[in-house]
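so im writing up the methods section and need the peptidyl-tRNA hydrolase record in one place, dumping it here so i stop losing it
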Amino acid sequence: MTTSPFTTTADPRDEKPQYVLPLVVRLEKTDPPARTDALETSARAVLTMLADPRSTGDGDWADAIDAWQDARIRKVVRRARGGEWRKAQALPGITVTGGSAEVRVYPPVPLDGWPRELAKLQVSGTDLHDPEPPPPAGPAVPVLWLNPELDMSAGKTMAQTGHAAQLAWWELSDADRAAWRDSGFALAVRTAPPERWPDLLRSDLPVVRDAGFTEIAPGSCTVIADHPALRR
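--- predicted struct ---
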């Protein structure tokens, strides 16, 4: 099974400066996004940041991305509405839009060095719902399978789907990465059927094991990244 960087076991990365990838979801009172769309948009936002030319080579964000990936791979999702969202949009980053969700992702920042405009945004309160159950994912679509035994807030789950998408990205060849990028990072987030979850855990697909900083126990398996190219 693929080793996950999202664990609490002793690791040399703990000795390095810690960074966090900020994500902000637009959450207006009168028109909140659907939960599954927010989860999928968050995952695509992480992939969009990783694939952006500014995040690699001599790009403006490359040093921050490298420092972040050398340490624990932390992500924190905050929420914004109205004027807060407009201020968040003004900071360097990328906004990714889904069917009803908007998520802005920013270059990594030191764990205690959030920009003021983002630091004051709330983490809690991202309890979202689907108006109806999402349809089955197509056979060729990468699926991020949620652990059916865990109950996580939407914000926490958005971070976890971002982790899973990143693990899949690391495992893919350059050609498969390019194909995924050209598809607009097509993916689906679905809760795994309880009877299928044990088989997914044994499948050697990338699995996120949470560090246990919030909501759930350390080492909990939260999401499995099932990209068709990883099953070849």
